[in-house]
Amino acid sequence: KMAADTSVDILQKVLENEILQSAKVVEEHLDAEIQKLDQMDEDELERLKQRRLEALKKSQQQKQEWLSKGHGEYREIPSERDFFQEVKESKNVVCHFYRDTTFRCQIMDKHLTVLAKKHIETKFLKLNAEKSPFLCERLRIKVIPTVALIKDGKTQDYIVGFTDLGNTDDFTTETLEWRLGCADVINYSGNLMEPPFQSQKKYGTSLTKLDKKTIRGKIYDSDSDDD
């Protein structure tokens, strides 16, 4: 019986030892896995950090390049010749064709000044319509103010008068920003499906009367022809 008890004890010890050994192996295996995961995470974090730093550096370089090309401020250009040069060197350009005597051009100026600082990815310009007859004819600009929206050197869209901006002189900078976003000439973060109009609930409800009032190519002010 004693011998039997001894063999049971030995067997029990062997089993306990086996279990301990197994547990140790499992533990070591888990430790190795955890260490591997930790290592991977650190590497990943390092790679992510590097990627972010590179993106930041690239973004800073891009910003400097834009600023060197005159982005970040709303500028007047002196002539038609300057217009072609300015448009050639920037991907996105917003150009306001204005006239000194038109009150609505001053309203447009106020909003474009704010947006030029906010959206340095886009070049914001103004050009006196009376000093650029060739361009006005070529771009079929009949109403002042008209804002030409240019992408990759091609005029994609126009904001003619304030019709697209809720048909009011009191439109907000956000409304103009939304309209530029619709033309994809700025990086717009809002919802394009929801124009932030103040006085007009639904976009495009009133058709423009401006073009019909243009006689023999004469340039009219939109504030004398709108409402």
UniProtKB/TrEMBL annotation:
Coiled coil: none annotated. Residues 80-163 form the Thioredoxin domain. It comes from the Eukaryota. SUPFAM superfamilies: Thioredoxin-like. The keyword Transmembrane helix does not apply. Keywords: Cytoplasm, Cytoskeleton, Nucleus, Phosphoprotein. One of its GO terms (cellular component) is cytoplasm. It is found in: Cytoplasm, Cytoskeleton, Microtubule organizing center, Centrosome; Midbody; Nucleus. CDD domains: Phd_like_TxnDC9. Its main location: cytoplasm. It holds the Pfam family Thioredoxin. PANTHER family: THIOREDOXIN DOMAIN-CONTAINING PROTEIN 9 (PTHR21148). Forms ternary complexes with the chaperonin TCP1 complex, spanning the cylindrical chaperonin cavity and contacting at least 2 subunits. Significantly diminishes the chaperonin TCP1 complex ATPase activity, thus negatively impacts protein folding, including that of actin or tubulin. This is Thioredoxin domain-containing protein 9. It comes from Nicator chloris. The lineage of its organism: Eukaryota, Metazoa, Chordata, Craniata, Vertebrata. The gene is Txndc9.
